[in-house]
Amino acid sequence: MLNPTQPYFYLLAYLSVLYIRPHEFVPAFMGWPVLPILLLLAFFFWLVRQDKRFEAPQFWIIPVLMLMMALSVIFSGWLTGGLNVLSEFAPVVMLFYMVATSTDSMQRMRQIFFVLSVCITVIAWHGIDQSIKGIGWTGAELSQQTRITYLGFLNDPNDLAMALVMVLPMILHLARDLGFLLRMASYAAAGAVAYAVYLTNSRGSVLAMGAMLFMYGILRYGLMKSVIVVPMLFAPLIALGPSRMADMSADEDSAEGRIEAWYEGVQLLIWRPLFGVGKGLFADHHGLTAHNSFVLAFAELGMIGYFFWLSNIIISWIMLQRLVQTAAAADAAPQDVQKWEELRGAARTLLYGYVGGLVSAFFLSRSYVVILYLHIALVVAVYQMARAQRPDFAAITWSERSGKLVMMSIGSVFFMWLLTRVLLSFT
Fold it and tell me: Which is nearest to 163 in space by CA: 126, 116, 111, 104?
């Protein structure tokens, strides 16, 4: 993992710098294009690598989605803005391809889990220190004098909470195979991350952790037991959760503004149904962000772009669900059973994080954030490993689900329209 002669080293180095961002607070690195250099190095070694697999439909859906992002801006009347969108989202696409194809073994999957776990633990430690001193060692200050933040794409407390929530299952996954002392250290790290989520004072993140707990209960104990037990376990999260949880009602100012933004998103889609108002241009029409990744996607990209965005989300969910539910072959050798169970364990871990990320995204405008596409890349990686180990593991294709995906795209828009109408009636 720490061998610079190995191509995978530069990908892990890029992920580390992407999260920790030393170029934003270490004087020796400030002003240097550290991230672009590492990205280009990692991408160069990825290009010369021969054994790349591109079985998953996300490999073409995401580039098409990027094209739709650019077209949405171009059709809004801003040609150079479309080119800017391509340059801004290209690093995300490059990272997706590298992670999805290079993570071709459980050893490499664990290495990425480890790197992300260490990074997010350091960030959580920074947040805890920041909550005590008012300013972290990076120079990042508290938001609203109470909510912890970090740097870069994690400078917003809600974004930070989403990142913390999505990596938390990875820490717990790695802890299972460690010795006693390291396992206790991992649990301490998980506790620090959970406490950092609390310090973000993010209501959506508390709901996300509750959703992850519910999914764990379903997979471990079944649906009926989870419906009974999980709400009792979730109640302390609400009681001890962020102070803003007490204000979580339809007539609270923040909630009312959120609902109005959702309604405005639907109206913008009706106005520009095909290509939307343009990626990144929602606030130009409403003044505030959409406060919902689904609303933001269909308002900015229109139904065509939203179809590909949602297809990416749903197909990734299906991959995890199918892998988690598929047991090892009855006639498989013991070593093959063990390998398959390792894949299923990684899939469960990714599923918990995916659930947490999607619940968080429902209350945030994070349709295009890098952590979502990094997670989907890991989903694709574990799916392709499963296909490589068991050719009889049914392939998941876009064509066989395209009709359902169209209906789900339309249905989700109708659901958001109906939800906003109901909620607005209570404001």
Answer: 116
d(C-alpha 285, C-alpha 56), whole Å? 36
C-alpha span between 196 and 372 (Å, rounded): 20
State whether residue 103 is helix, strand or coil. coil
Q: Are 241 and 198 in contact (CB under 8 A)?
A: yes
Please answer whether residues 347 and 355 qualify as being in contact, where contact means their C-beta atoms are separated by less than 8 angstroms.
no
Q: What burial class does residue 355 get, using C-beta atoms within 10 Å of its C-beta: 0-12 exposed, 13-18 middle, 19+ buried?
A: buried
Which residues does residue 147 pair with via DSSP β-bridges, in sequence order? Answer: 143
Separation between Cα atoms, residue 152 and residue 169, nearest integer Å = 23
Distance between CA 232 and CA 217 in Å, rounded? 12
Backbone phi, psi, residue 293, to 5°: -65, -35
Partner residues linked to 141 by β-bridges: 135
Determine the Cα–Cα distance for residues 311 and 295; give it in Å rounded to an integer.
15
Alpha carbon of 331 to those of 256, 327, 328, 335, 338: distances in Å? 57, 11, 8, 12, 13
Angle of helix 157-175 versus helix 180-199 axis, rounded to 10? 160
Would you state the structure tokens that stand for residue 111, as one six-digit string? 């290495």
Helix (H, G, I), strand (E, B) or coil at 129: helix
CA 178/CA 59 separation, integer angstroms: 34
DSSP labels, 23-88: GGT-TTTTTS-HHHHHHHHHHHHHHH-S-----STHHHHHHHHHHHHHHHHHTTT-HHHHHHHHHH
Question: Coil, helix or strand for 108?
Answer: helix
CB of 213 closer than 8 Å to CB of 230? yes
CB 282 within 8 A of CB 289: yes
Asked if residue 250 has pLDDT above 50, the reply is no
Position 119: which residue type? C
Secondary structure (3-state) at 421: helix
Record the pTM. Answer: 0.94
Q: What is the pLDDT of residues 297-352, one digit of tens each?
A: 999 999 999 999 999 999 999 999 999 999 888 778 889 899 999 999 999 999 99
Domain-by-domain residue ranges, the chain? 1-50, 58-102+250-427, 105-247
Vertex 369 angle, CA 131 and 103, to 5°: 105
The residues with which 143 forms a beta bridge, in sequence order, are 147
CA quadruple 212, 99, 294, 281: dihedral sign: positive
